[in-house]
Amino acid sequence: MENLPPQMKMIASTQGDVLALQVAINALIETLSPAQSEAFLENIDRQAEAARASLPPSVMPEEAIQRFELVVRTMRPTP
What we know:
The chain has helices at about 5-30, 35-55, 60-75. With about 80 residues, the chain is mainly alpha-helical. The radius of gyration is 15 Å and the shape is flat.
């Protein structure tokens, strides 16, 4: 990472932050009781909807919005 320009270092750092948060959320969901897990996921759904309503597409690049939607979807366990 030493040879990366400062912008790429910042992006790489942010990617690491996001990955760590994903791991923490997945671990949290797995340790909750079924009722707690469902309540947590319902809260995520409400928070995601609030984020969608408060950030018009012109504020964020389309790629960021697409990634947000993907990550929120993947928080739901597969049947």
